[in-house]
Design a protein that fits this description.
Largest sheet: 7 strands, antiparallel
Strand order of the largest sheet: 2-5-6-7-8-4-3
CATH architecture of the largest domain: Orthogonal Bundle
Radius of gyration: 27 Å
């Protein structure tokens, strides 16, 4: 079995439970109110070479493997305080705490000696157990290692029972001398770690498969064993059962089916495969078989791109098994298929193929070409595919809803069945822009590095910022644009954002300005762009433009931001990212930019309590209105709306921030306003139970329309209403 197939899923097989060096403490609250819903990430020249190899060792180190029973540590590891860590760093360490009061990021040494490997690095966090809020018995296990600029990075995930905990990730980075120097944690703090034994055995798992599939299927019992099934960025331990494939078609050599059955006897799903596993516990989805007989030929096409002829070359592959031509690249393992069939018909693969090699829709060709360029861009920086190990890429054309209605967008869809998935629409021209598709490709890279995604509020805005940053730099580095203002989507004819001037597309320059969307608990449920993930991404993405303008070369910028991507986890917020950017500068050899980062972070007002900053920052030409709520439960079920008295239309709206105060920013334009609070039955906002307006005396809230207050608004003013109850 080749190295590429020995990647993440293999590492999820082992339940590595390490004891701690102190007594068990009381269960604590979870980090930052964790949700476990994955969201699609959407958009609201050097020539590619199939034979080009990285000029440096791969950034991914496939030798990192967990062990079931690590050797006992003979040394006593003391429990550290913040003061201990500062003493180890001459009071220069950066220590960030999360919303629950636990340490989430450390920049500075936090262990008394160098560590030898991923398991030894776990010893370094035993002394941080109190600071991290961890209980005895569920330390994480290593997923992969990376090397960069002489430093080593280890990525870990947390387990509970038979599944990984979604987005519960830990990063430990070692400095050039091998000392743990950076820690960034999204580990959960309220897990009672138990390992529940399977309620069925291998033979019963086989019977589950045969009962479901019916006649004509034969089980290959020698390959039935425990494995791990990954869907998007979650993994579940289960049984794998291999059978023959009676429905194998002529197009691809897929003689087997691998079935997955959970430990309670529930059938999960199955996939055809061209491989039987070897004697190690590695699952294989057989995606290599889709490419092994393909015969590629480079072909040149000319299409209309934003009013101009655009000529490029891509591989078109002939499949001798069925005599058809495919938009497939067997070298990079990229292939195009139908969105609806895969997403809404049980992962059914209907590949884009035809009898002619030279007649394809322009949108298909442009999308295919730009994903190839994005792949080549990352490979130049030693990251092969989105996971760094060469995971096959499936481009799903015809992005639509379950009714087949086209969706006017582009998206990254995570990982399923061993594919890195991307959705592309035929109703728009986003596929014509490398920055857009580089943006989506970066979501795959970022989410693999982070081992998860919290696609809301500051966490989602940081994710979107990295995608804009890397997408734009990918386009520039690969020579696919002449744009000097760092626009997003300019070659598609549909510009959506500007990294040089966020105000041009109604994005904020600082926390609390007129374009800022306050994060809220409702952002986790999709409210207002998931809490401003696309709108607020400018707060971080504009930093890239500022660093470029300060004289930092493009290639150095790319390496700096890749380093930062590698060191953060899903629940990192702006406080964590400041520390991560400083660490990335120090560890990547760019310490001279730290003052620029400091100045930028202060100007953007991203340090400190962003709730209070948003509520107290005046904006000329606008009035701010703060609406406090009587309880957090009430705040989580309400939306504030501001209406124009003259225009009789809604001007703006907001939900309460995490401190229970909703802040609306209203333009001063000579109009008068009234304010309403719509109270819903629950946080799903599905049914209204009350609708109140601020009263005429500005003393409370009323349901009487004759008592509804109408107000003038003043520039730069901040008004706080009576508490809503």
């Amino acid at each position: 079995m080749d190295v590429r197939r020995k990647r993440l899923l293999a590492l999820l097989l082992v339940l590595s439970v390490l004891g701690a060096a102190c007594s068990k403490k009381e269960t604590t609250s979870s980090k930052k109110k964790k949700e476990t819903t994955y969201e699609k990430h959407k958009m609201s020249t050097t020539e590619p070479s199939e034979t080009e190899e990285p000029t440096e060792p791969s950034q991914r180190d496939t030798s990192v493997r967990p062990v079931a029973t690590p050797s006992p540590t003979p040394e006593v590891i003391p429990i550290l305080t913040e003061q201990d860590i500062q003493a180890m760093n001459n009071n220069s360490a950066i220590i960030v705490r999360n919303d629950d009061g636990y340490v989430s990021t450390i920049v500075g040494r936090f262990f008394h000696r160098p560590v030898s490997d991923a398991d030894d690095a776990i010893n370094a966090i035993k002394g941080l157990q109190t600071l991290l809020g961890l209980e005895t018995g569920y330390f994480p296990f290593a997923v992969y290692g990376a090397t960069y600029e002489g430093c080593t990075y280890f990525t870990y995930q947390q387990l509970k029972d038979d599944s990984t905990v979604l987005s519960a990730t830990l990063k430990i980075a070692l400095d050039q001398e091998g000392y743990p120097y950076v820690l960034q944690s999204s580990l959960a703090t309220n897990l009672d770690y138990t390992i529940t034994p399977p309620t069925i055995d291998e033979a019963q798992a086989e019977q589950v498969v045969l009962s479901r599939m019916g006649d004509g299927y034969t089980v290959y019992s020698q390959y039935t064993k425990k494995t791990s099934f990954q869907y998007e960025y979650n993994a579940e331990h289960c049984f794998q059962v291999y059978t023959n494939n009676p429905s194998a078609g002529i197009s691809f050599d897929m003689p087997y089916i691998v079935h997955f059955v959970d430990f309670d006897g529930n059938y999960i799903r199955s996939y055809p495969t061209g491989f039987l596993p070897d004697d190690s516990q590695f699952v294989d989805y057989g995606n290599e078989s889709y490419f092994k007989d393909m015969q590629p030929t480079d072909m040149t096409f000319t299409i209309d791109r934003n009013g101009e002829d655009f000529t490029f070359t891509v591989p078109i592959s002939y499949n001798p098994n069925d005599g058809m031509y495919y938009l497939a690249d067997p070298s990079r393992k990229i292939i195009m298929a139908d969105f609806y069939e895969f997403v809404y018909n049980n992962d059914n693969l209907v590949f884009k193929c035809q009898a002619s090699a030279n007649s394809w829709p322009d949108n298909y060709l442009a999308t295919y070409y730009n994903y190839i360029l994005a792949y080549d861009f990352y490979k130049k920086f030693n990251i092969e595919s989105t996971d760094g190990f060469g995971m096959p890429i499936l481009i799903l054309m015809g992005y639509c809803d379950q009714n087949g209605t086209p969706v006017n967008n582009a998206c990254n869809m995570g990982v399923t069945a061993g594919w890195s998935l991307f959705g592309a629409a035929e109703c728009n021209t986003y596929g014509y822009s490398l920055d857009i598709l580089g943006h989506e490709f970066t979501h795959g890279v970022t989410n693999y590095c982070r081992q998860g995604s919290i696609y809301a509020n500051e966490y989602g805005a940081i994710n979107e910022a990295f995608s804009d940053i890397m997408g734009n730099m990918c386009e520039m580095y690969m020579g696919e644009t002449t744009d000097t203002t760092w626009l997003m989507g300019e070659t598609s004819g549909n510009v959506c954002r500007s990294m040089s001037n966020p105000y041009e597309y109604n994005q904020p320059m600082y926390v609390g300005d007129q374009n800022y969307l306050p994060p809220s608990p409702l952002g986790l449920r999709g409210y207002r762009d998931n809490g401003g993930v696309h709108v607020n991404n400018s707060l971080v993405s504009h930093l890239c433009y500022v660093l470029y303008q300060s004289g930092m070369p493009l290639e150095d910028l790319i390496r700096f931001f890749l380093c930062a991507i590698e060191m953060h986890t899903p629940w990192a917020d702006y406080d964590d990212m400041y520390a991560i950017f400083v660490a990335a500068a120090q560890m990547s050899g760019y310490a001279q930019i730290v003052p620029v980062i400091d100045e930028y972070w202060q100007a953007a007002q991203m340090s400190g309590d962003r709730n209070i900053i948003n509520e107290t920052t005046p904006v000329q030409g606008y009035q701010k209105i703060n609406i406090p709520f009587a309880s957090s439960d009430l705040a989580s079920r309400c939306v504030v709306l501001v209406f124009s008295y003259y225009g009789q239309n809604e001007i703006t709206e907001a939900a309460a921030q995490s401190d229970g105060v909703a802040t609306v920013t209203v333009p001063v334009n000579g109009d008068k306003i009234w304010i309403e609070v719509w109270e819903f039955a629950d946080s799903s906002l599905s049914s209204i139970v009350s609708q109140k307006a601020y009263n005429t005396s500005m003393s409370g809230w009323t349901t009487d329309p004759y008592e509804m207050g109408v107000y003038d608004i003043e520039s730069g003013d901040i008004h706080t209403t009576a508490t809503y109850s």
